[in-house]
Structures are given as C-alpha cells and as structure tokens.
Amino acid sequence: MHRLLILFPLICITLTCGCFGSSDEIQKYSLSGEVTFQGEPVPRGQIRFIPDYNAGNQGPASTVTIVDGRYETRDGYGIVGGAYQVQIEGYEPSQVDDSNLDAPPQPEKPLFANYKTQVEFEKKNSSYDFVVTSN
Hints:
This protein has 135 residues and is mainly β. It is 14% helix and 36% strand. It is elongated. Mean pLDDT is 83; it is low at 15-23.
C-alpha cells in the first residue's frame, strides 16, 4: 500500500508531462493579398490552401474568405509555407430584393470555374496577389 501511494503521484506526473510537454506545434504564417478576375476585384469567394504532399509539404489546409477582392488569414490559421495547391472560387455580388424579405436567398452565381494553381510560399508572414485567368 505504501508503494502504491508513492507510485501513484509519479505516474500522474509522467502522464501529465507526456500530454502537455510537447512543443511540436506547427509554425503558421499569416498571408493576405488581393484576388482579381478580368482586371476587377473578386467581390466574394473563398480560397483553399492545400499543402502539396507530393512536394513534401506537410501541414494543415486552410480556407479563407474573399471580400471585395481581399483576403487575409486569421491568427493561428495561416500557412506553413512551402508548396501549396490553391483553389479559388469567386461569386458575383448578391442581389438582394428589399421588397420581398420573405423570399429565400438566391444562390450565388459563380464568376468563373473553380480556379486551381500551385504556389511556393515563403516561410514567413507575407502577401500574395492572385490574378484569376480562365481555365
């Protein structure tokens, strides 16, 4: 019984260190920029940043919103740098009919087909502008 009283706190300390002692958190960098299509800012949309595992890049994917031609990652949700596959979707501005507020919202109309490109990002906070072309 006496040994059990000594071993129990040691086991708890060991488990606690194992659970909370890791410093392997992935370094993420903020990214911002502009998105244009046919020379105009993309009014609304989203960008998916997917690490290119085939190029040896590992890390979490992230999605950011495009508003009035600009995007910016939130703190803690940026990129890890390196090779990425990037997918961009853009939509025309929503047409709101104020005369009939009970009507269901209209689906967003795409500005262009799902645009895909590959980018090599630096491992630092940075800015990158996208010019969407027709696929």
